[in-house]
Amino acid sequence: MKISASLNNRDARSSPRLLLTLLAAAAVVIFGTLAIYQVTLGLRVVSTEDGRRLEIAQTPRALPFAALDWPARPALADVMRADGRVSIITFIYTSCNAICSALGSQLQQMQATIIRTDLQAKLRLLSISFDPRDTPRQLSAYALQQHANPAVWQFAGIASQAQRKAVLDSFGVVVIPAPAGEFIHNAAFHLVDSQGRLASIIDYENPDQALAAALALYEKSQQ
């Protein structure tokens, strides 16, 4: 009887501790779930890249001020609005031997499609270098190397480091210096509408999808 009473007393004392432990564990699960929900934008995405694409698709983003390294140094947003076309923007650097080479091949095919289907009055391609070593002369030489038709596909740099960073941040482009003057960076097709807003981001491995989405964006602006 004494042993039984002792056990009952011990169980009574341990019950509040057990309850507190269970409540603490439940709180960890709840807050952990909320954190995952927030990071993944409502569990609809599982990565930062998907997150930025979903965010832009839901809320087109105005472009920050940046003077392109062209004659007269026009503002990026002004260039995008100048002729009413939808712009497909990519970020590159001319000495890249990796992802930029694949991207260049995709853009050459996109340029050919735009010209063949007579879409040059609706769509344009713009490649922006994030490498301060890419001077206008270097970019012109690179454009010739890529067989770029300037009526469809243009190249530009942004001389100001602060403005260049503002553009990269706005587009969600991450650039990390690597050995031997290389860079590690993410790549995609960034669709800017005729009002100069970043409206959609398409994977660089899907050029046909990017063209279709850009054309749909143009047609929407004409309604």
Strand fraction equals: 15-25%
Give me the count of strands. Answer: 8
Going across the biggest sheet, name each strand in turn: 1-8-7-2-3-4
Q: Mean of residue pLDDT?
A: 84
CA radius of gyration is: 26 Å
Highest CATH level, the class of the largest domain: Alpha Beta
Let me know the largest β-sheet: 6 strands, mixed
- What general form does the structure show? globular
CATH superfamily of the largest domain: Glutaredoxin
List the domain count as a whole number.
Answer: 2
Task: Return the structural class.
Answer: alpha/beta
What is the correct CATH architecture of the largest domain? 3-Layer(aba) Sandwich
Distance between the termini: 88 Å
- Uncertain ranges: 1-7, 26-46
Number of helices: 7
Helix content: 40-55%
CATH topology of the largest domain: Glutaredoxin
Listing every helix as H and every strand as E from the N terminus to the C terminus, the arrangement reads HHEHEHEHEHEEEEH
Description:
The chain is of the alpha/beta class and 223 residues long. The protein folds into two domains: 1-39; 49-221, Glutaredoxin, CATH 3.40.30. Helices cover 49% and strands 17% of the residues. The chain is built from seven helices and eight strands; from the N terminus they run H-H-E-H-E-H-E-H-E-H-E-E-E-E-H. The chain has helices spanning 2-39, 48-58, 76-81, 99-116, 136-145, 161-171, 207-221, and strands spanning 61-62, 86-92, 123-129, 153-157, 175-177, 183-185, 188-192, 197-203. The strands form two sheets. Strands 1-8-7-2-3-4 form a six-stranded mixed sheet, with helices on both faces. The chain has a two-stranded antiparallel sheet with strand order 5-6. A hairpin with a 5-residue loop joins strand 5 and strand 6 (183-185). It starts with a helix and ends with a helix. Residues 1-7 and 26-46 have low confidence and may be disordered.
